[in-house]
Amino acid sequence: MVLTSKNRKVSARSRQRSGSGGDSKKQAQTCAPAVAQSDLLNLKLAPIISEEHPQLSKRREIEKEFFTSLTYLCDFYGISLVRNKSISFPMNILAAYEELSAKLLDRNSNLRLAIIQDDTHVATLATARPFDTNNTLYYIPCEPLYLFLEDNSRQPLADLCLSIFTYLFQVVEIPHHRQWASYLNQMYDMIEQWMIEEDQPEEAEYLEAELKELDENAGRGEYILQLISDCSHVNSFERRVADFQASGEVEADFLLTAKKALTLYLDFPNRSVMDAIHPELIPEDDYGNGIVHADKYMSFIWSFNDSVYDTLEDTINCDLQECSVIEEPFAMQFFDHIPDREVHDFDFENRLFSLIDDLVANLRDLQFN
Questions:
Q1: 152: which residues sit within 8 A by CB, 6+ positions away?
Q2: Enclosing domain of residue 87
Q3: For 84, 159, 174, 245, which has the most beta carbons within 10 A of its beta carbon?
Q4: What mean pLDDT is predicted for residues 143-159?
Q5: DSSP tag of 153
């Protein structure tokens, strides 16, 4: 994996595309692959997943909608599927789902099949295509913002940066490294514990200095986390972009990035990157190698330049190189009709990850300008 677009490499062993995962889901629909036959015998219609987990009381509705949708999908992709009417409900749906899923994968290994149940669908088929994150770690450093805040002459720059960070944290839901349950928080804690337990007297002075810096940076990170938890910075986003007067080419580039972030926010005011992440669509890891969850490759980080970063990078490398599956966003295409063409919309994801690339490059230039 690559730290942001053009930074250091972190290796991931063998990469399978996976679904969109995460803890937050603002959209109604969720999706899942089929489960074992025993689950269906326990009256759980496995491929159909919704937040309410309804029982199978709507048999006729479910069968009618599912098989109509199946016809649409087969016609669209030119797939031949013979319905076995001797199989009773709900096993008939599972059998058709599994056969269609296999044939779809034969045609396009990037597509997954899901059955959608939400406010307007009881059992509609959808194809799900994963977004390719290019084995990239999208880590956003907080140290530049802290330095801007410490410099009174850069207050407008700090305010604009605060708006971008707050949008990415609160709306897009990119985790922060000082959140207790976040992946990077655990990595930082692990490094601190190693330093405390290190038994090398000749390294004592060096380790003490590193521990002190780690502690100070943790406090600074907590300060940034507190600031970006204030929604007023998002509410002030448009005004700050309009009022910002760039001083020089580097700040002008940063203003362009801020405008990209604001436009993305206005176009998708409630969209989280986690909305399109569905852990249910991730292929099972039969070897116990683990999954690169979304919060492992998207996060705020303290710095790429502090004394513990090299250790942090090695620690992440060692952890992620054992993983064989990456949790990525999915774009869905519903088959409640026969579409004119195949469309899996990644407009939000393409713009978001491009924005993060630009932001990280801008922050680096601004910090050392």
A1: none
A2: 28-129
A3: 174
A4: 97
A5: G
Q: Which residues of 180-205 are buried (b: 16+ CB within 10 A; e: fewer)?
A: eebbbbebbeebbeebeeeeeeeeee
Is residue 23 in some structural domain?
A: no
Q: How far apart are CA 299 and CA 183, in angstroms?
A: 8
Instruction: Quote the distance between the C-alpha of residue 256 and its chain's center.
Output: 24
28-37, 142-151, 237-246: least confidently modelled range: 28-37
Q: Are 246 and 229 in contact (CB under 8 A)?
A: no
**Do 197 and 275 belong together in one domain?**
yes
> Taking the complete model, does pTM exceed 0.85, yes or no?
no
pLDDT digits (tens, 9 = 90+) for 333-361: 999 999 999 999 999 999 999 999 999 99
Any idea what DSSP says for residue 300?
E
Output the CA–CA distances (angstroms, integers) from residue 232 to 159, 160, 243, 306, in the order listed.
11, 12, 16, 30
Q: Is the pLDDT of residue 23 over 50?
A: no
182 and 70 belong to one structural domain: no
Burial class (CB in 10 A: 0-12, 13-18, 19+), 41: exposed
CA separation for the pair 25, 366 (Å, rounded): 35
Handedness of CA 193, 218, 313, 350 (dihedral sign): positive
Same domain for 78 and 140, yes or no, is no
CA max distance for the chain: 77
Does residue 74 share a domain with residue 166?
Answer: no
pLDDT digits (tens, 9 = 90+) for 283-317: 666 555 688 999 999 999 999 998 889 999 999 98
Q: What is the rounded CA–CA span in Å between residue 183 and residue 107?
A: 36
